[in-house]
Amino acid sequence: MPKVAVIILNWNGERLLREYLPSVIAHTPAELATVVVADNASTDRSVEVLREEFPEVERLDLDRNHGFAGGYNRAIATRSEEIVILLNSDVKVAPGWLPPLLDTLDAQPGIAAVQPKIKSHLRPQEFEYAGAAGGFIDRLGYPFCRGRIFHTVETDSGQYDTPTDIFWCSGAALCIRREAYLAAGGLDERFFAHMEEIDLCWRLRNAGWHFRYCPSSVVYHLGGGSLPMNHPRKLFLNYRNNLLMLHKNLPRRTLRHLLLRRFIFDSAAAMLFLFQGKPASTLAVFRAYRQFFRLRKHYTPPKERTDDACVFPRSIVVSYYLQGKHTFNKLTR
User: Fold this and answer.
1) Are 88 and 173 in contact (CB under 8 A)?
2) Could you give the CA distance from residue 139 to residue 134 in angstroms, rounded to a whole number?
3) What is the spatial distance between Cα 24 and Cα 256, in angstroms, rounded to a whole number?
4) Residue 202 to residues 3, 67, 122: CA-CA distances in angstroms?
5) For labelling alongside 201, which of 76, 86, 138, 230 has CA 20 to 30 A away?
6) pLDDT recorded at residue 296
7) Share of the chain above pLDDT 90, in %
8) Contact 201, 136 (CB under 8 A)
9) pLDDT digits (tens, 9 = 90+) for 23-62
10) Which residues of 226-238 are buried (b: 16+ CB within 10 A; e: fewer)?
């Protein structure tokens, strides 16, 4: 039996399946991996398309739309492979994408997960927003990537072609040990969507695991397939889930000081949305805080803080907006 399950979560993605699934099938050796599509109770012709046009792909039909987190948790629970890959339905993989990821995990038993270089499908010379060349986080809990900081996305000129340790791996193409995934409790289903993979990686870091970026594996991500970048619903989920992630993974003493500073930064962002004529976005930020205070009772923060490896020691907001450091290489000089 193959040691890997490549799991694609689908919801009403009939068009995406036709466009992106063929590359996954063509470039994923059957002796290494099984390709599985987990369908989140689609109401379009996704299931028929899979049955009629991709009979070689295994299909798991879920009873309802469980969201990104719930869908993957249920799909992974049904598998017995040693390694699972969470692959977005709008990802096209390059030839030879899989072996480098597996080689990284085989060579380094302390690595829980590894991600490929993620480039834009629409602009292949550029990195893609969701993951780029590996995820990091700043001292206030704002995530960013090598190759993408806020709205600045870099052209790939080989500047990030060195394998490196990272803080988090993108959920767009996440290659992870199934045992570690299950031991950490999987993705947090209260998040529903957005930042749940960062939270999972942080929980695994607290348990002693590490994460790696593998540039010799390349995939191309469409991105923005669910909601546009600044859609109020997406902003709400990102702000709320980021706050929950901090509460879950930082000790109370650290969290108390951090939340005050975060509220100042986030309030400034909310006022900026208002001045830009986006009152729904302003409301989304404060709704996120309100729901965070309701949901935090469900979690117990850790007693101690783990190491700060791969944490940017300053504020990415200050570095980006006030100091003009728009690329990762400028941040680290």
Assistant:
1) yes
2) 17
3) 45
4) 25, 20, 31
5) 230
6) 95
7) 89
8) no
9) 999 999 999 999 999 999 999 999 999 999 999 999 999 9
10) eeeeeebebbbbb
